[in-house]
Amino acid sequence: MRLLREGVRHRPGGAWSLLIKAGSVAAALYVLWIGALATITGNAALWLAAQLAGLGLAHETVGAFATWARAYTANWHLDISVFIAITFPIAFLTTTAHRGRDRLAWTDVALAAASLAVAAYYIVLNDKFLNWSRGFSQPTQADIVVGFALLALVIELCRRSVGWGLTALVLALLAFTVFGKWMPGPLKHENFGVPYFIEMMTIMENGIYGAPLEVAATYAFLFVLFGSFYEKSGGGQLFFDLAGAVTGRMRGGAAKACVTASGLYGSVSGSPTADVATTGPLTIPIMKRMGIPAARAGAIEATASSGGAMLPPVMGAVAFIMSDITNIPYASIAWASLLPALLYYYSIYLLVHNEAVRHNEPRMREEDIVPLRKALAGGWRHLLPLGALVALLVAGFTPVYVAAGATAAVIALSWFHRPTAIGPRRFVECCTNTITQLVPLVGAVAAAGVVIGAIEISALAGKFTLMINYLSGGLLIPTLLLSAVFLILLGMGMPTPAVYIMGAALLAPVLRGAFNLPEMQTHLFMLYFACLSAITPPVAVANFAAGAIAGANPMALGPYAVKLAIGGFVLPFYFLFNPGLNMEGGLLYILESVFFAAAMVTFASFAMQGNLGLRPIPWPLRLILFASGVATVSPRFDITLAATLLGALVLAFVQLRGRPAKIDVSA
To answer: What CA dihedral angle connects 533, 535, 541 and 542, to 10 degrees?
Structure first.
């Protein structure tokens, strides 16, 4: 029963491997069922029942099936219970907190069995919990015991999958919730009983069975599944080929191809680490062959991959969680995110090109470039599922329908090219890969549900608002800066969705309530910093993944990654005050917002890098440039225009009067 380890992940062999594969397929089929197939088959059965009734034939059984199938998707408690029954045991069997372990321990098996038993309890008694009436129904002794068992399993799974960062936060909040009645002053909250605590944590929609795990069991699973099928059918290779064909012959073509390929694939996967793991093995070695040092190559890959959750059409689980929390349609979120995401990648391209000029980086080798016509001739079919995905979203279909339909399209189109056709073996591999990618997310979002439950029970959101107002003096800009730092600190080792959920629970009441900031921009602000936490030291999950591929110390990637991503750090402040960047307002206002936002990103990027091509920018001018970028955030046109003109004059002065430095061929 030897194991292959991937950090703290391992893959059991033998019968355990077969069990995990079977569970992965069952999870995929079940989520597809609740996401789309139940409604589709229910509607088909309803039509058939009507036809049979018109012919005078028996139709009661068909009609009963139609009613059952169409109503199945409303059974959210059962859906989450089934999801826990499948994913928790697999997570415990494939995740360990001990890096040196090379065998499956008895504790792994025991925890897997316990999680299956707990989920089975909720499945068997589903009708009771689905029809629960708060204030009238009361948990039994068995409900309390099983509830505490589920809570303990969630904490242990969180520790195994994402480490002590989020786990420590969960334990601290639980301690505050339990002992808060003895806290001094405004931190004190009312006492509560054990039945109420378990009811909130495991039965109501504010705890473990809340929106985070529900989104993971539907939207997130389906889009990760789509990404797995898309990559297995050759879609990831098409992105790299297209990127190389478009940018490979430019100066620094390898780095630019990496940014393009990682951005394209990240817009489908929505996960920084998954994007790095998929495109990194293709892009990082080519960059290193072109003379780019390992640390810089890894940082470029990590930064480009971390923008995937900002870039439509998919944007990953965090966008769907945002839609669920705010009740803003996902299509509206994707539309509002388009221009800021493009400017984020513009800022990366700008600095990558500037570095290419400074280091005299060559274009990609011709043998590494696939001609555009050849790339499209061999992979045009991979563009069709993306087109269908966008078209279905624009047409107003729900995201789960869109994901299920796009996945079906990928499978069908894969058979037009036999070498990448998705047969039974590849189908099982894709399902297993999906579960593998979701394990950290499942642990994190389940723990996030515990955090939300603790905040609800202890009324911590109001206390946190008071604390932020005290630290910031009640001023907007200091509050925004504190919020950004808080989100980045939360992101130390945590998946992006978990960071956003914490921000939505703790920061949204401050930003929305105290300052009346617009809802869309407020939540996109938190989404951006949740994404950027993946590359921000000291613990940056995307940097660790890219560093492992590049053969570089992950800590060495952080400073350069932050420099490359400076556009992402300043853009959220801009669209908070200038909603035209989110496609709001008239056409002229939108164009004006894009122009000034591009100027802001340009000034901040050159100020961070300190060079304009081969011309160094002196420190006083760098400070003026950065100040111009900051001033551009202002919603007042006169201030923004003056700041833009000042920044442009600084760059023109450096270009005309600066003395070119010698080409720096080192990193």
So the answer is: 130
